[in-house]
Design goal:
The structure holds 2 protein chains of 2 kinds. Chain A is of the alpha/beta class. Chain A has a single domain, classed as Aconitase, domain 4. Chain A is built from 7 helices and 7 strands, in the order E-H-H-E-H-E-H-E-H-E-E-E-H-H. In chain A, strand 6 and strand 7 form a beta hairpin. In chain A, helix 6 packs across helix 7. Chain A starts with 9 loop residues before the first strand and ends with a helix. Chain B is built from 15 helices and 18 strands. The longest helix of chain B is centred in the first third of the chain and has 17 residues. Chain B is globular. Chain B has 2 domains: 243 residues, Aconitase, domain 3 (2-Layer Sandwich); 152 residues, 2-Layer Sandwich (Aconitase, domain 3). In chain B, helix 6 links the parallel strand 8 and strand 9. By secondary structure, chain B is an alpha/beta fold. Classes of the chains: A alpha/beta, B alpha/beta. At the A-B interface, helix 4 and helix 7 of A face helix 5 of B. Chain A: InterPro entries: Aconitase/3IPM_dehydase_swvl, LeuD. Chain A: Keywords: Lyase. Chain A: This is Alpha-IPM isomerase. Chain A: GO terms for molecular function: lyase activity.
């Protein structure tokens, strides 16, 4: 795997799940399954400990929401591959654990730090996310609420747009070669 | 502008007079390090060669590879993994250290973790270099960016300062300190920052304990940890470093995200319950006394150095490992093993019934003698997530070498103070 496909400028979907603080992402697929990248195997175990119907109801563009220190522990890559396979387009959290943040940023997953997000959204809320500015519009029957987090750095925006760090480096390398 | 240690080190590697926390800049590490592991080094070498067309390195002396994982089965797969690594290192002219011990210790013994140096690795426990006033940063797959370009973009981290006073009580060490810090500040208490240690308690701390403390920095959310230079660092680094040392002090009025004072004499032994090192899992050892264990492990890149083996021997001298418990001791490097042998410490451990294994990473990640489903282990390893040391049904508690040795003697979680009082 060299990275995830880049997201559209505006990610439109729903809140597919809300996790608590210090969430260990390996639990998304269970620690027994953290070595596999096989799409079918991953689908069969994704979020089963939380919601049997998760894999069937998630649609491309949906996002997951985390509390403080999302990704704490010893994160492996397959859990996020499993979520990306289902169409999860971004993670919005109060804050991210640095190791997880670095590993998934490399892969090009938008990880947006949005203070207040975990207390504001509810499961199933429709959201529109401008990932470059970390602006989240939450649409509810009683109106739209907007939260703004910390915009990713220019470098990270370039990484996400390129479909991950590896693809960005390849593109930069090709540019240098052609000079 | 006054700067922290980390700002000064990264300013040098970014070719700047000064940098500020929050800037994003390309930095040139002094050493870019990996251990060989399938799916990591083999892939990175192939990417460098096939995707980026690199057939010759401009500065091969800045690359280091250690063979410290997968050393204990002697099967064909192991041999194939290491053969591929040897071939690539020879092709690129990269220095390879094979089976000398765990890389995060060997890098210190060979002088790579010299004061003021900046080292990256895909593995986060490189932060142990901070014990020598060197900055070690685990950058995961971004190591490839360093290997391909010689530099990599980094967010300059803010620093939390820890003023340490007092000295550890007998039976207490820096493993208890790091979990004390997590208990007080939370598992994200230093998120995306560097921990800077100074003060009389830091200067009094043994270098092995500093390595353990810095090596565990990630569990506070920190990206690294670093000690102020002092006589201990300069003397130890001087023995293994060629040329002038370049220690880096913080400026007195540097800007810190937070400053905490911790009195080491007030600390008590701590044990972390299975699952993760988060604050809720961090208990006083006394709270868990009586929890039965079947396996005990002293070793890893954080613990397993001479001070840990001395600690274990001080508890095990004249005592025996409890029936039904296996105590495995893995000196962190060959040099540590040989010193422990010379000091007679390994004889003490053997007489008590401990098993001494070859220096490697293999116990800590469940490759060598993996835990069985019914096992309960107390460990000085770096991780206690489910499945880390074998079966996902086995429980892993973490504590200092004192506490692990005491628990092995008792057959249940116990402190060195209790065992040596009996």
């Amino acid at each position: 795997m060299t990275g995830y496909p880049p997201p559209p400028d505006l990610i439109e979907g729903r809140v597919a799940w809300v996790f608590g603080d210090d969430f260990d992402v390996d639990l998304v697929i269970g620690v027994e399954n953290i070595k596999t990248y096989d799409a079918d195997e991953l689908r069969a175990v994704t979020m089963k400990a939380y919601d049997e119907s998760f894999v069937d109801r998630v649609r491309p563009g949906d996002v997951i929401v985390g509390g403080r220190n999302f990704g704490y522990g010893h994160p492996h890559y397959p859990p996020m591959v499993a979520l990306r396979n289902l169409g999860i387009a971004a993670v919005l959290a109060e804050s991210f654990s640095p190791g997880f943040w670095r590993g998934e940023t490399y892969n090009g997953m938008p990880l947006l730090t949005v203070p207040g997000i975990s207390q504001t959204v509810r499961l199933g809320d429709p959201v529109t996310v401008d990932w470059r500015t970390a602006t989240v519009h939450i649409q509810r029957a009683d109106g739209t609420q907007t939260l703004t987090g910390q915009a990713p750095s220019d470098r990270v925006q370039r990484i996400i747009s390129a479909g991950g760090s590896f693809n960005l480096m390849l593109a930069e390398h090709a540019q240098e070669e052609s000079r | 502008m006054p700067q922290t240690i980390v700002e000064k080190i990264l300013a040098r590697t970014a070719g700047r007079d000064e940098v500020r926390a929050g800037e994003n800049l390309p930095c040139r590490p002094d050493y870019m390090i990996a251990y060989d592991f399938p799916g990591y080094t083999d892939v990175m070498f192939r990417q460098m060669h096939d995707d980026f067309g690199i057939t010759k390195l401009a500065e091969p002396e800045r690359y280091l590879v250690f063979i410290d994982h997968m050393l204990t089965r002697g099967d064909q797969r192991e041999q194939d993994v290491h053969r591929v690594t040897r071939e690539w290192c020879e092709f690129y002219g990269i220095r390879l250290h094979e089976a000398d011990g765990i890389g995060h210790q060997v890098m210190v013994e060979r002088g790579y973790a010299a004061p003021g140096n900046f080292l990256i690795h895909f593995d986060g426990h490189i932060s142990g270099a901070g014990a020598f006033n060197a900055l070690g940063w685990g950058v995961r797959r971004d190591l490839l960016e360093g290997w391909v370009k010689g530099e990599l973009f980094l967010d300059i981290p803010a620093t939390t300062r820890f003023e340490l006073v007092g000295e550890f009580q007998p039976g207490v060490d820096s493993r208890d300190l790091v979990h004390e810090i997590i208990a007080r500040l939370g598992a994200d208490g230093c998120a995306h920052q560097v921990m800077e240690f100074g003060g009389p308690g830091a200067r009094a701390m043994k270098i092995d304990h500093r390595q353990a403390l810095c090596g565990m920095a990630m569990f506070t959310g920190a990206v690294s940890a670093i000690f102020e230079p002092d006589d201990t660092i300069l003397e130890r680094a001087g023995q293994v470093t060629e040329g002038e040392l370049a220690p880096v002090w913080p400026d007195p009025d540097a800007t810190y995200a937070a400053v905490h004072t911790i009195d080491l004499s007030q600390l008590r032994p701590r044990v972390v319950t299975p699952g993760s090192a988060r604050a809720a899992n961090t208990k006083l050892a006394d709270e868990l006394t009586g929890t039965a264990v079947t396996k005990a492990f002293i070793g890893s890149c954080a613990s397993g150095r001479i001070e840990d083996i001395r600690a274990a021997a001080s508890v095990l001298d004249g005592r025996t490992v409890a029936p039904g418990v296996t105590l495995n001791v893995v000196p962190t490097s060959k040099a540590v093993h040989d010193q422990a042998e010379r000091e007679g410490l390994l004889d003490v451990l053997r007489a008590a019934g401990a098993q001494i294994a070859q220096s490697s990473c293999d116990f800590c990640f469940g490759y060598q003698k993996p835990l069985q489903p019914e096992d309960v282990c107390i460990s000085t390893g770096v991780l206690n997530i489910s499945g880390r040391m074998g079966s996902t049904d086995a429980g892993i508690y973490m504590g200092s070498a004192f506490t692990v040795a005491a628990s092995a003697v008792s057959g249940h979680i116990n402190t060195a103070a209790e065992v040596t009082r009996e």
